[in-house]
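[Automated response] Your request has been received and processed.

Submitted sequence:
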Amino acid sequence: MSIRLRLTLWYSGLLAIVLIGFSVIMYVVVSQNTMGVIKTRLANEADKIRVTVSPEDLDLTPRASSPFDVIIAVQIVNYTQSFDGVVNTKSSNLIASNITFPFPSAKQALDGKYRAVTLSGTPFLIYEKRLELGGQLLGLLQVGAYTGKEIDYLSQMKVIIGAAGLASLVLAFVIGLFLARKALRPIEKVTEAAERVQSGSDLKLRIPGESQDEIGRLTRTLNHMLERVEKAYNVLEESNAAQRRFVSDASHELRTPLTTIRGNVDLLEKVWAETASGDAAAERGSELAKPRLSLAEREELSREALHDISDEARRMSRLVNDLLSLARADAGYVVDKEPIDLLPLVEEAARRAGFLPRKAEWIVGPLDALAGVRVVGNRDYLMQLLFIFIENGFKYTPAGEVRLEVYRQDDRIGLSIADTGIGIAKSDMPRIFDRFYRADESRGQTAGTGLGLSIAKWIADMHRATLEVQSHPEGGSRFTVWLPVDFSERQDYAIIEASVRPAVPDAEQS
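Generated structure:
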């Protein structure tokens, strides 16, 4: 049974109880008022009647001075001759109708009693009054009235009330169904929306009609929930797409060194297989014993192949390490962090960077701003973060310089790597931290996997650092890492003038 039908039945049942109660009360009130008028009139008529007692035979006779109305019938019962009573006198209308009112015995005769009787199919209401003399019961005065019209009126009233009540119930049931349907329509919309969302056919669906009642509140709550579900679904879809793209790119990046290694191994096998077959032919004295390549040529070819294999193995090792770092990032890996003195770390990074292969000049600016500065982080990962930017600067700066600078700004310290290389196009800026993304063809000609900046962003996020990128497509890029300074241990910092940050012409910032 649906909620709509249950609500309608409950409403109709309650209305039926109210209608029945109201009808009963109304009928009782009207009936009592109608009969009350007759009772009052009968009592008044009884008070007007004067009864005389004849001493000879104790005859009870009403006085003629009190005329009777045609709707009033009078009967006098005499108990002086019999305890059961004898009708002594009747009004003319009773005589004409040959009707005698039933009367009680002397012991049951009560004063002021009303009784309703039906005689020969005619309804009467009778009022009885004791006739006494000196405290002795002599007779009983009965004054009756015809109540056929009143009974017919009350019977018609019953029919009208019953029909009206039944019609009201039917109408109320129909209206109740309509109102319940209208009231529950928003809930039906909610159900339809939930079913469509459950089927995954339309996550953009929203429930219309936000009223200010409870259903409106439910609608708003569900719409907000649908928005969150849609966002979560979109994020999941983007994550799945990124994962598929990641796997595809990783497979492509791994396939290249593996193909190179396999090709060189096949070449070595072929070269030395020919050598072995040539030696065997020489032992048999065959003319095929003459080798195609000399020993020196085979050794030179082998060295080149082994060099290529070594380079590709190192490249693949770096790629696997980068993939491991990103896998840790995706898994929510939390690194161990501790307070670190930043000056020794940056000095070591600057010293080690001087040994990297490069064509650009390596310049280290003043590091005085780092004196006494501590940050909470992981030393190894911060070192890796700096080297990612330094190596990128060396890769994409075929001529010019790569510079390390530091800045102090309130409670942050900035480590900046600036180069005069090829720069980054404006269209590439939003995606430079995407995995495996590499900018235009000029950058694509440089060795790399496109994972370095993704790892740098993960390391920065772990250290609650901010990455700032400035670049000009015609040349020059600056990557700045803003690290929060650790004030957990109070230190006396030297007052040092803030370094002036060189402006990059027409800088693009992200």
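Summary generated for your ticket: The domain at 3-154 is CATH 3.30.450 (Beta-Lactamase). The chain is about 50% helix and 20% strand.
If you did not submit this request, please reply to this message.
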